[in-house]
Each structure stands twice: as structure tokens, then as C-alpha cells.
């Protein structure tokens, strides 16, 4: 089914004001990947004619889905599909690997990089002996220069080395020392961005974010990663496969 047919079919299934039906249909169709990320939408004039809506109604619909992070206006390219970044639940991968698979350039801003003995709370949660030297890394993760996630990770110093400066891929660094997690216990929950998190991610306070906490276990069954990340809800989605 082509782009216009998919939108019109979706609009016909709904009730309510035309503008709401158009926005919902655009959201559904673009989120389905019918137009790949990075490609431009047709012109406003063409879209309005093909969808039988006024240009003002279409323009408002595009503005609404831009606020959801599905499209963006770029000089010389018009309205470009951005799309949410899928994260597979079926295999273990890091942020840098996920972005590379999407053809995006991953980068980081290191906000904290320190070494200290593990405290009682972390020792209780991870099972690491009290006083174990751990590396704390707080980073803002970006894709194509756009903030996507705020991440706080703690790993034993042995897993990354004392000279790690926090740049680049954490998992690649752990791979080099044969310390990458082999099994991960992960929990996800929806929450709202407080003022500090919103400032880092470039969203409004109270915006929806996806909070992901994980404990990574190495070959010996000991914890080698204790991390929590907050992902922008408008740019990230989790995808899993369930077999019966």
C-alpha cells in the first residue's frame, strides 16, 4: 500500500475532527516505516491535494507530528522523516551499535567520569564486595548531534581500566578486556522528565521518557554493569518478538 492510500484508509477508520484524524493517521503510517527515515515527504501542496485537506489543516498536522519527533524541517530537504529508533529486545547491544545500524553517527558528552569504592546501596544491589573500585560514567548520548538519552553507568574498574575517559563505546572498551556482559537483567518503565533531565535531552519538563535499568552479568556470573538510562519517549521504541 502506498503512502497516500495508507493515510486515507487510516483516516476512514476514525471518527472526529478532520485535523485529529489526519494527525493520527500520519503518526500511525510514518511510525510504521512506510517512508524510511531520512527521506523527504512530498510537498505540502501535493499532500493536501492527494489527501483532500486544506494546506492549513495539513500544516498543523505536520507541526503536531514534528513535536512527536517523527519528522523535522531541514533546509534544502523540506520535511524529512526522522522516525523513532527501534531497540531490539532479542539481543544485547549498546547505544553506539544501535545507532550504527540505523546509519546514525553516535556521540557522547561526558558529564561525569570518576572512580570510587562501591557504596553500600550499590554493593547490595549488585553483589559486588563492599569497597570494590567502580567506574561511574554519566553521559549524554547523541545521534546525529541530537540528544537521545541520558545515561548513568557503574562498572568495575577492572572491566574498563583506570585510564578510560568515558568517550566512545563502553561495550567496545569492555570487549577489549573480555568483560562485556553476557546476560542482562533489564527493567523498563515510563516516567516524566524532571527539569534537569529535560534540559539535557532538549524536551519540556514533564515530557515522557523511557527509563531503562539493567544489571549486566559477565562469564563468571558477577555483575559487570549497573546502569540506568533515560531515553526520549518521542525518539525511541522497544521492539520484541514473542513465540508461542
Strand content: 25-35%
User: Based on DSSP secondary structure assignment, what is the total number of beta strands?
Assistant: 10
Strand order of the largest sheet: 4-5-6-9-8-7
Q: What is the count of helical runs?
A: 9
Describe the structure.
- This protein has helices at residues 3-12, 18-31, 44-51, 55-67, 95-101, 120-126, 157-160, 170-176, 195-201, and strands at residues 71-74, 78-81, 85-88, 106-117, 133-143, 146-156, 183-192, 208-217, 223-232, 236-239.
- The chain is elongated and about 65 Å long.
- Helix 1 (3-12) packs across helix 2 (18-31), helix 2 crosses helix 4 (55-67) and helix 3 (44-51) packs across helix 4 (55-67).
- By secondary structure, the chain is of the alpha+beta class.
- Strand 1 and strand 2 (78-81) form a beta hairpin.
- The longest helix is centred in the first third of the chain and has 14 residues, at 18-31.
- The model has no long low-confidence stretch (mean pLDDT 87).
- It has a 6-stranded antiparallel β-sheet.
Give me the secondary-structure topology:
Blueprint: H1 3-12, H2 18-31, H3 44-51, H4 55-67, E1 71-74, E2 78-81, E3 85-88, H5 95-101, E4 106-117, H6 120-126, E5 133-143, E6 146-156, H7 157-160, H8 170-176, E7 183-192, H9 195-201, E8 208-217, E9 223-232, E10 236-239
Helix pairs in contact: 1-2, 2-4, 3-4
